Amino acid sequence: MSLTELFALAGLTAGLFMSAFYVLSLIKRDASLVDIGWGAGFVLIAWVFRLRFPDALPTGYDVILWLVTAWGLRLATHIYLRKPAAEDWRYRDMRDRWAGQFWWRSYIQIFLLQGLLMVVISTPIIAAAHPGDGLAGAPWLWIGTSIWLVGFFFEAVGDWQLDRFIKAKRARANPADGPRFMTTGLWRYTRHPNYFGEVVLWWGLFIAQLGVGGSWWAIIGPLMITFLLLRVSGVTMLEQKYADDAEFEAYKQRTSAFFPLPSKH
Q1: What is the reported pTM?
Q2: Is the dihedral of CA 151, 209, 221, 23 positive or negative?
Q3: What is the C-alpha separation between 202 and 224, in angstroms, rounded?
Q4: Residue 160 to residues 186, 187, 189: CA-CA distances in angstroms?
């Protein structure tokens, strides 16, 4: 199969998958359903390649396949289980700003845009399915897998710790009592261990696909997810949300924003 065919298949898969979630969002009047589809979409792309080209994929592709599957299904399940009945505040804000245009703008600027980003970030998966100028035969597959495991640990454990904190907070007689922000566990060393973990695991996938014989151009994927989580959504959006909160400001003074570092006090 050609590289063009792989990109076209990834684009078609992402487009159809996000379109299905768009239709569901109209029925449920909840655009935040797209967040559940984010991780699952990468899993679908990886498995479509496996099913479409069962005998043409290079040795080692299945390692990438299962790493993506483990990450994507865990993330989709986590978001599904924690999702409140109401639409997330980010999408409610868009719904208010776009008013009567939301029904079509959401399709283009939320669902199709995320589908496009999904394809761009999937470049390590695409490159692993189409060997180019990588380092096949070198230990990069296992080095990348080890880095992926570090990232997966930070994302999964960070999410789990935050879930426990939120559940304990809701169980208090007065939820307003006690700390309002998670500041222990991994959250003592970085204010965003889950986002740090996601960035690291995508860099791990990039390095791993080099060992499958992938290509250096696949660096586009980890660069894109790093930029998005640090400068567009993720870290930037949450930091802005709590910018004027005194308790959060105190937390910021003693805790690293992204890379895990010892707490200052």
Answers
A1: 0.94
A2: negative
A3: 10
A4: 10, 11, 16
- Quick check: 190 and 259 in contact, CB under 8 A? yes
Do both 156 and 171 map to the same domain? yes
Predicted pLDDT of residue 238: 87
Residue in this structure with the two tokens 């870290």, named with its chain if needed: 235
The secondary structure of 187-243 as a DSSP string is GGT-S-HHHHHHHHHHHHHHHHHHHTT--GGGGHHHHHHHHIIIIISTHHHHHHHTT
Please list the ranges in the chain whose pLDDT falls under 70.
173, 175-176, 265
Q: What is the DSSP string of 41-69?
A: HHHHHHHHHHHHSTTTSPTTHHHHHHHHH
Angstrom distance (rounded) from CA 53 to CA 116? 22
Q: Which of 109, 130, 151 is the last residue of a domain?
A: 130
What residue numbers bound the domain in which 239 lies?
132-265
pLDDT in tens, 149-193: 999 999 999 999 999 998 888 887 676 677 889 999 999 999 999
Cβ 40 vs Cβ 69: under 8 Å: no
Last residue of a domain, one of 130, 162, 194: 130
